[in-house]
Amino acid sequence: MDAARGGAHPRVNCDVVPSHRLACRSPGLHDREVFPDVMSPGVDALLEQARAGLRRLTPHETVEAVRAGALLIDTRTDGQRREQGDLPGAIVIDRTVLEWRLDPASAWRIPEATGYDREIVVVCRQGFSSSLAAASLQVLGLRAATDMVGGVEAWRQAGLPMSDGPADVRY
Fold first, then answer.
1. Number of structural domains in the chain
2. Residue 47: what are its φ and ψ, rounded to 5°?
């Protein structure tokens, strides 16, 4: 996709492969010749580590999980939701408060955060930040937290329906 039209990140090259997984490369972002003093393994390594603990779902698997009782959590920005539309049955939670809203022990939790075994599927625009968010939820003890491969862009490409009603926003 063209970055000027709101598509993929301009420095990340991603391809959807037949297994419904994204193959991404970010060349040069952590090049030791460009950034010789950087000791960080980089965001790609962080993402890989986060995803290693997730059983990521395809859009169709996500629909089935929600039908079976999973929470569908949309962390996209207001602008992204205006541009792409809302997902049916999703609860919109700003990424900055996600852990507080979903931790069953938090005083600021949403009523649906009923236990640490509750299945949670986090969705973002393209399936990158949702992986980091789901991994963070697992660190809190929400072991059934995961995310959806490819984000809302993959949902739309799969031809799945968008919501007709207003979003269920929980800030």
1. 1
2. -65, -45
